[in-house]
Write a structure and sequence with these properties.
Blueprint: H1 3-18, H2 38-50, H3 59-68, E1 74-76, E2 79-82, H4 89-95, H5 98-103, H6 105-120, E3 127-130, E4 164-167, H7 182-187, E5 191-195, E6 198-202, H8 214-221, H9 237-240, E7 243-247, H10 256-262, E8 266-271, H11 274-287, E9 291-295, E10 308-312, H12 318-321, E11 332-338, H13 348-354, E12 359-368, H14 372-389, E13 395-408, E14 411-421
Helix pairs in contact: 2-6, 3-4, 8-10
Length: 427
């Protein structure tokens, strides 16, 4: 029976019952109201908790506060990370009471964690922070005259000094230059997440985490799949398993873990930040991979180590340390990752020495979108010049540029895949 016939039958039945025509008005069912967002629920509950004596009151007042509250969040269990600028000075000025800001903020943070936890269903959430960009330079220190130094020092360790910790114990206050002890690691607050089936671990007070690298990690996992459009990349699993990769800027294992899951025999990396190395170690263990941390002064005997080896120290002597007997434990090195931003160019010439057979250099750099083509040609020319200088007969071809994520308006984090090969020789 059609909808029209159904309506007519109902009308006829009503007419019979009432002995006369009846006007039937059909109204569509109103859609149910969408559930309130967890942050809105938390703010409204908080305002009710405080009462009118502390606040200005009124619907417009509440709506003004809600419009200024963040709408998004990310959960890295057991921490909630809010976007930059959340609940800043302007929000508290809109609240209009210094007494509220100083005495009742903890109640708001508790409600936020509780309501976001209910929505996410990932267990108890205990820590709350506001994200911030990782500064490329440290704040310049004042000189003896009280003036700021003209040149600031590069933030080599990429310390997340701008992170605003709102609720929870994030670990002891330590200078980035302090060498952490085992007790410091134990006392620190650690979080984790899973991307592409891989667990990563870090301490947010001391170590950055780049969520936007997830796309590049996934790309590496499929780099040698059989359906690759580039024939040079289509390698059998048995071939991949005989080779290794080197990551000159390991971090917490962003790309090292992808290389291992790709099926490579071993990955060796260099990292300056001890907090990142500890996060990498914990992440490797969580994924079930064997890992060895080597200090810069220790002998690099790869024959004794597991799937992942991390040298805690500067990478300037990486090529030198990979010479000799330890090289045989790696099989062939077919990937060298140079993942430093805004540019990893200082390590490119050395990466050629490390990649002493056919393989790929993955060169990371921030590039203006209008300059990508020109930069591609410049990189290829530069590497060919280095090869020629040493009498190396291999060729270099930037076979792909991956746009990973935007770094600033009109600027992209790009990865230049440079294929280094001998003419007519399979990889």
């Amino acid at each position: 029976m059609s909808c029209v016939q159904s309506r007519r039958a109902v009308q006829e039945s009503l007419i019979k019952l009432c002995d006369g025509p009846v006007s039937v008005i059909w109204r569509p069912k109103k859609p149910s109201a969408s559930p309130l967002a967890p942050i809105e629920i938390a703010v409204r509950s908080w305002l009710e908790l405080l009462g009118q004596d502390l606040l200005n009151g009124g619907d417009s007042y509440v709506e003004n506060l809600l419009s200024r509250a963040p709408k998004r969040w990310v959960v890295y269990s057991p921490m909630v990370l809010l976007p930059p600028g959340s609940f800043g000075q302007q929000w508290w000025e809109a609240v209009g009471s210094e007494q509220v800001a100083s005495r009742y903020a903890v109640e708001l943070w508790t409600l936020l964690l509780e309501n976001i936890g209910k929505r996410e269903g990932k267990g108890p959430l205990t820590h709350l922070a506001v994200n911030a960009e990782i500064p490329l330079h440290k704040d310049p220190s004042p000189n003896f005259d009280g003036e700021r130094l003209v040149e600031s020092i590069e933030n080599v360790l990429r310390t997340p000094s701008g992170l605003i910790m709102l609720h929870g114990d994030f670990g002891p206050v330590l200078s980035p230059e302090t060498v952490p002890t085992e007790k410091d690691f134990e006392d620190a607050f650690w979080v984790s997440t899973k991307q592409n089936g891989i667990i990563q671990v870090w301490a947010p007070r001391y170590t950055m985490f780049s969520r936007g690298n997830v796309k590049e990690k996934a790309r590496l996992l499929d780099f040698h799949s059989s359906d690759q459009s580039l024939e040079s990349r289509r390698l059998a699993k048995e071939k991949v398993a005989k080779n290794s990769a080197v990551d000159l800027y390991a971090g917490i294992g962003y790309f090292m873990f992808s290389y291992i899951k790709m099926g490579l025999r071993r990955v060796i990396g260099w990292e300056l930040n001890p907090w990142s190395v500890e996060g990498l170690r914990r992440g490797a263990v969580a994924n079930g991979w064997s890992v060895k941390i080597v200090r810069s002064h220790e002998v690099l005997d790869l024959a004794e180590y597991g799937q992942i080896v991390v040298v805690l120290g500067d990478n300037r002597d990486a090529a030198k340390r990979l010479r000799g007997p330890c090289r045989y434990a790696l099989g062939g090195i077919i990937h060298v990752n140079c993942g430093l931003l805004p540019s990893s160019e200082d390590s490119w010439e050395m990466s050629l020495e490390i990649l002493d057979r056919d393989g790929w250099l993955h060169l990371h750099e921030n590039v203006g979108v209008k300059d990508v083509l020109a930069r591609t040609a410049a990189i290829e020319e530069l590497i060919l010049r280095w090869l020629k200088k040493t009498g190396d007969q291999r060729s270099a071809n930037v076979e792909h540029v991956e746009y990973v994520k935007t770094f600033a308006p009109g600027v992209w984090h790009c990865v230049f895949d440079v294929y280094i090969s001998r003419p007519g020789t399979p990889p």
